[in-house]
Amino acid sequence: MNNQANIMIPQHVIEDATEWAIMHGVAFRQADNTARHCPFSIAPMTMKREVYEHLRKVTPLITKLISNLSEDHDYLQSSLQDMAKADPFFGRLLALHQQAHYDKKQGKTDKRLNPARTPLLLMRTDFMDDREHGAKVIEFNGIAAGMAPFGQRATEFHAFMANQWPAVYRTWAATSSENSSKNSSKNSPATPAENQGLEQLAYGIAQAAKKVQATFTTDTPQAKPTFLMVIQDNEDNVYDQHLLEIALQKNGLRTVRRTFEQLSTQLTTGENQRLMLAGVGAIDVVYLRAGYQYSDYYSPKRNESVCCQTLSQTRLFIEQHHVAMNATIGQQLATSKTIQMLLTIMPAEDYLRWGLTLEEALLVKSVLAEMKPVNESTITWFNTQADKQQWVLKNQGEGGGHCIFGDDISDKLNQLNPTEYDAWALMLRLHPHERETPTIAVRDGQQTQIDDLVSEIGLFTAYYNGEPVTEYKGYAGYLIRSKPASENEGGIHSGKGILDSLALID
Questions:
Q1: Residues 35-47: pLDDT tens digits?
Q2: Domain finish residue from 395, 411, 428
């Protein structure tokens, strides 16, 4: 990494770029209510067109699989019992799932219940294009799968740079010869990949909202479908959320925001299991941008014998009403690392249980990286035979900070109590192509040259009640996050990641 890059791009260009980002909402809110621009690259990363097209084809199939699996409640209950004992948070989720879907009488579960909610799966599937194995899934994100607005804005930002500062853009943009064969024509520009992540996610949500509202004849004809976003208190990643809300408003929806704490006293049941919000009225769509960690359900005001009981029951209350909902408890369970591991281990033929053809199942299999459960046998194998640099140890946590690499894995495995094993999984470590063309990263208004940038691509999809609800057969755009190859944590919000976009090479 070269820290002498402050003279490489004129400061007035950097200021223009950062002001564009702030003006277009590509920012985090600060504690004093000012805004700080997201870190970004000055020009896009590249990917072979055939790799991108393969991911475009396979990702909606992954969402179809997860959508159907998330409604297979017996499978979720039986498959996740051990993991739920090892991970208290998922233990809480599985207990909520049982409350939602099973009638418990005389100390045993017997009759299946059908909560009124309709599943709306807004999913981001994250990939890395490994140098040896090709593009592989890192993880499924089925709850709080945000940043589609930022993904689209990054594509728009690089188009702005190409038009406004073409000489700077050409200097740092990769050409079609990068990652390509020696026979490729040199210095021809790579083609930016279209990205309508913001519009398509809003379109899919709006379709679901209108379908829910149409089932209620008691609504006044002029009432707008209403979208409820469940948020964390005092969070800083709000502009991405507001960009989505603005797009939904353009689609004819009314949008409101509440925390679980607020909802615990503001929700009631209307006629025909309609979900009612005090001061607002009927709710058609509920979208959780909170709920993936214990702290989202914790209230210091409440003295509870069971941690987070009240606010997690609020989530269950929502599921018992006629709303389109993301994420359902089943969706969150189905996108856990344990289910990802089980899907990786099982034969493709088993996917037919969840509505895929064998051809579709094999396509999904083609992008799943090897995973192993943590048990006495795999710990012995890892400590005595494995190439430790080729594996990563993951727990069930969402977002950054939940992965352990290299020699640190043995230390962690040796610290684990056997009762904790099922909360963890080993996964083949992915080593993506490094960008051959150096780039400029801009963070807090300062530029830095990065010579070894690697990228992660997240593809968004939207399915309502098991069916695609975008104009691209379920696909809804992408998010690129890049980081120096030497850094383990690549999150934009927490980590060394920068916002990026995608250009295609043939």
A1: 999 999 999 999 9
A2: 428
